[in-house]
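Researcher: Let's do a round of design. I'm pasting the structure tokens now; please hold your answer until I've finished.
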């Protein structure tokens, strides 16, 4: 049986947001694999750390607490199947988790833990990352923002006869 401990510190929640993701109608999960020598509270961090996030947009406090209790109960059933790996996982609950059948919550949580804690596969030899700095993102085009060279605006601005712009 895998021991699942609580994720408590904000930096750990934020770090998990940079890892793999899993989404269903009832919840989303974000997770990252920890380095083997990472520490928590002065001791070596071992096993799975899990935290719940349930925003106010989901509902009032009683509804959010009910969702949290349902997810904790589902986690007790999933703990036996949880992977034996050092990872941080954040589960973000959605409104449908309040009325969803309990079995679907258990299955969603089981699938989420499997997905976000899966070790990375081997990279093919000579493969480049999907979005390297020397190759722009094919979907969004070149990056724009503070780091671009100063110069005229790349977007044309139409001028009215009185000199005002349309923007």
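Researcher: That's everything. Go ahead.
Model: Designed sequence:
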């Amino acid at each position: 049986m895998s021991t699942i401990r609580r994720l408590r510190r904000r930096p750990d929640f934020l770090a998990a947001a940079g890892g793999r993701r899993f989404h269903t109608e009832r919840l989303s999960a974000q997770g990252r694999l920890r380095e083997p020598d990472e520490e928590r509270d002065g001791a070596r961090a071992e096993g799975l750390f899990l935290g719940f996030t349930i925003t106010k947009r989901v509902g009032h406090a009683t509804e959010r607490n009910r969702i949290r209790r349902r997810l904790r109960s589902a986690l007790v059933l999933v703990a036996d199947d949880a992977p034996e790996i050092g990872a941080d996982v954040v589960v973000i609950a959605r409104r449908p988790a309040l009325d969803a059948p309990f079995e679907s919550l258990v299955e969603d949580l089981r699938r989420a833990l499997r997905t976000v804690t899966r070790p990375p596969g081997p990279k093919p030899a000579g493969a480049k990352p999907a979005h390297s700095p020397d190759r722009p993102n094919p979907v969004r085009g070149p990056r724009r923002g503070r780091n671009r060279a100063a110069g005229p605006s790349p977007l044309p601005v139409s001028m009215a006869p009185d000199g005002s712009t349309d923007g």
